[in-house]
Design brief:
Chain A has 348 residues and is α/β, with parallel strands linked by helices. Chain A has helices spanning 15-26, 47-50, 68-73, 85-97, 114-117, 127-136, 142-151, 160-174, 205-208, 222-230, 264-274, 292-295, 324-339; strands at 7-10, 34-37, 45-46, 62-65, 78-81, 101-104, 138-140, 154-157, 184-190, 213-214, 237-243, 250-257, 281-283, 301-307, 313-320. The first copy, chain A, is globular. Chains in contact: A-B, A-C, A-D, B-C, B-D, C-D.
Chain lengths: 348, 348, 348, 348
């Protein structure tokens, strides 16, 4: 029997923070989460007012202004940052210094390579501390990185697109089954919650409904995560995101070439073996490629593929819910690993 | 053969203004419309950049800052105001004074009754001029009000909800077929473009998608138009709007009681006779009630009804496209009437 | 500590049956459900193949052909019928005779009044047995009918529309606060899963998307349930359903008149008191009427209302998820009551 | 001034046939189209009943059973086949023999290469006649093939996906700007009307809504058209279609490599020159890639691209409305070319 822990969530008002709050409320080893916001103009509020669907189970949860004292007084064990990149960049070093275990859901701490990180243009108050943390932060995909996560003070929860692509490719790259020099093309499509809760022209219902658009071609920040984690260079991995007229879910269609002599059965066997003990990776048979709806409201990443009859071309499909396995669910999974709980606690 | 006229559109960047621009471009009696905006922060821009779907047919159309001189120099004959209520309230009196025929698509000039108008809280610079114009403005539903529109300097284009309800009820009320004391209930549902192009929490794709909500219960401003035009008092007409997860279209379900002895055939005959010469009112048989898709991208209002076997209860259904018959299409129809063109010019 | 029970589901391939299966799998007092189908042409199959989203948690669940022997051998305690009306009409009497507790999710056993039942045109093999069961079946809304449900052999799970309307109105009618002679109008809107899984022209994506339509005006079968349970006659309650372009969810907008002297605070107090011990009824304050998304994927019915300033008109809004509180969730809740479990078991 | 011609449409009840009918009704050089169906079980019907949105403009149009006599008596000049592949395969040879100009919108006559055609498994009654027609049929993309179309008896209207991909790639391949040996990858996404009007599990609203799925990977029949028209072999072009939760529209994301030394300005210039006289091809600047909504309800194909800073990788995006430029609009455009009208007649 595990003792319970006290989680705190900074940024509980956004889509990711709210999904995380819902998961933590049901987590068997968590006490009621402390909800915080870090916006000058943010009023303290009631979580159930912001997310009426959660009323009943969360009637009494209020969202308070962030303060270190409040965190200390609450006996917080683990701190989730669902904050903008810059805010995470500011809060995480101090949180770690104060002894909290931290799971950051922003893009602040995911990139090890300074050149990749440059696109974020972080302006750190204490560059030395930030740099140390850049080096020690664990990249948060537990299927691939559990030992490092277990020992980390700060886990950088992986990006939603990045999770879908990395989990799909990791097994075959690790197994040396792909002709990587030819280049890997990732054509990904995401629901609108991935763009956040802030109303913009791009997220207006009338603009999105009935539409599809590609964006950030050759320039999406998640591509850096993919390359770093998969050990590919820029020329080897190309990533194009699209905005889908659905509220949530990601499907990535990934174009690769298998090495000479590799058969579909080899590819399938490699995937199944690599993920044999992974609780949230479902490998689908070639009869039915994964679809977005398979993974919605679950912490699963669904992976399947089709190979042309005599090879070498392979189409790999990967689906997940960007708010769960792509964000809040994976954050809980990371917490489970950090604190020694079973990875699936609170997620099935 | 009619000579051509020069239209100008103030507020061409919104949904209504853009739809109007598209209609005017194709109008056989209109020269290329002059496009204007009245926003301090609004940059002059290219219409096709804002609405790329119109590129090709409108490649050269730029949107300029509003100025009376520009209007005069362009030889404008008819001025369409697709502006916020307050802006219309400010521009219309001067436009009329300068001799322009004006069609206003806002709610600024629709209400004759000062008590109804009070909900808008207009702050007129020149209350006397405004008051005179309040009295002389024609309410713009050409099926019901063509003679007045033909002679008007200012036409107040009817509200989208108001058009759907008024057109559905006018025939039976005029024919004395309804038991009005029992009360008329209008339960209406509208697509999101009715809420305008400004991004808000309410129009965010994730909030609207998969949802339905009632709003402004007992307090929607279009209810005043309905009561004034149909000659009903507050107790006789009740209106509830809902926000539908679709980009455009309105369906109003209207609950009435027929007077004793009135049969379904009487109701049908009344509708068909009343609208016998109306080009944009389609009366549907009881076998198939109108649906929103019937009227999309058209200037039609589709009306049909079901009566319970022995009466007196009747469910009346009315559909239209809020951007066409509920706004821009009706504005063109009003212009046609004002300028002596056939009502259908540019609208079929 | 309760012993576990063995549930069986006939018709697990439909939307309702699948949702029920998902709930039963997670129910703390239920063993893995036995899944059955009753279609001549139905092949035994794998539940996770039909509903890939459930793979992982339900990998081993197969759907077998219905047979009484299979039921007996499995040690089934409670039988859920997610079958067409006629099949439920055939299976339920024998199931009850064989000693099973039965929850029927079809419309077969909901109506007490033979005249109302006539619209279904049931052709019973044994009319006497059917008639006895018609009389003894409990109407399955636990908030209103728990004692009868607790003792029943057969529970007729309430219709989705009926649940939304009955729960909204029951408190005020019970409290004598409404002027019922004026007539109650229920304008309801439902997502497409309410129309079932069978592909038809009406459920084709292209026909539904971007559309709204009223249907079965003055003729929907759920109206009979509403009248019987609320004690209203045909003239007192009018019901109009609409098909929404969303996968799931119901919103009912209900028009009533309060009796003279009744204030909004009286109405609110009545609702809160009536449902003070109801686990799945959320009464919302007038500041924010319920929306469909509040209740999705939950077993809650959300109720709220607006009253005009001086009365007597009231707009009552009720929302639920047609597959959960409107079907599978309520079926589990009914089972909980029948078997003496807490009503919320497996539903929070 | 052109004399008017008499068009006939076989298969006017489907989505493509209905869209075509709407276009022909408005075509300045066409008499009211003769509408026919070729289904044993098809009842003659009223077009406006099937497509109520067209009532008013098409009130009197009935759909009759197909018969050669009816065709002859009507004075038909041009025959549009919106029929299943097999029916087109049967009707086209006889129609050509009888002297009609034919535009076939099915896949029956698009493929020149017998090996590609094999996937359709046509069973021709007169293989010799069919083979001759296979050879003489013109592939119907007027931007690329106008002279051949002008002289053809039978035009095989190009597939919707094929049109989007071929138009996007033709200029650069013609100009020799691409490194084709590396392989071209076409990741395309289509709305549901592309799957036809027949209700199936795949087109059920609940299955499509909120979802995205890849299908026919390595096996879609339009890939053959693309390869034949672009002169690529199987290894050079790879095509993956996806089903989008929208009613209409296609977006193709195409991955290519430019030859050494090719700059973005070269690519842009090539596109603009190649399509300088094309009325329905809009080349977009790199500042804004085309989106599906740009092309909806128009006959435009919108093309744009992004190139990585130093090349050679290019992402090419192509959008069109699958029912207009991908089917009915292009069919009218083909007719215009065949009969010597301006390509844009009836299409702007």
């Amino acid at each position: 029997m595990h003792a319970t822990v006290q989680p705190a969530v900074v940024g509980a008002t956004g889509y990711t923070g709210a999904e995380l709050t819902r998961l933590l409320i049901k987590h068997p080893h968590c006490r009621t989460p402390l909800l915080l916001h870090d916006r000058e103009d943010g009023a303290a509020g009631d979580f159930a007012e912001l997310y009426p669907q959660s009323a009943g189970s969360a009637r009494a949860l209020s969202i308070e202004r962030f303060a270190w004292d409040r965190l200390r007084d609450s006996g917080t064990d683990v701190l989730f940052l669902c904050t903008p990149h810059e805010v995470s960049r500011r809060l995480a070093p101090e949180a770690v210094e104060r002894g909290y275990r931290v799971v950051d859901l922003s893009g602040a701490w995911r990139l090890k390579n300074a050149a990749n990180r440059a696109v974020y243009a972080f302006a750190d108050a204490n560059p030395v501390a930030a740099s140390l943390l850049d080096a020690s932060a664990a990249y948060g995909i537990p299927e691939l990185n559990a030992p490092e996560i277990a020992g980390a003070r700060l886990v950088a929860n992986a990006g939603c697109y990045a999770t879908s692509v990395i989990l799909a490719l990791a097994a075959w790259i690790d197994g040396g089954l792909l002709e990587l020099e030819h280049g890997v093309i990732c054509d990904a499509k995401s629901g609108v919650s991935g763009a956040g809760k802030q109303p913009t022209a791009r997220t207006h219902f009338v603009e999105v409904s009935g539409n599809l658009s590609a964006y950030n071609v050759f320039g999406h920040r998640h591509a850096g995560e993919m390359r770093e984690q998969l050990g590919l260079d820029d020329g080897q991995l190309q990533f194009t995101p699209h905005l889908l007229p659905i509220p949530r879910g990601i499907l990535a269609t990934i174009y690769v070439r298998a090495k000479d002599g590799t058969r579909a059965t080899d590819l399938a066997a490699c995937l199944r073996e690599f993920y044999a003990r992974a609780s949230f990776l479902r490998v689908h048979g070639s009869a039915r490629l994964p679809e977005i709806r398979f993974s919605l409201h679950t912490n699963y990443c669904d992976v399947g593929f089709a190979m042309e009859p005599d090879g070498p071309r392979v189409v790999l499909v990967s689906c997940l819910d960007n708010l769960v396995k792509g964000a809040a669910g994976q954050a809980v999974q990371n917490m489970n690993v950090m604190l020694g709980f079973d990875q699936t606690e609170g997620l099935l």
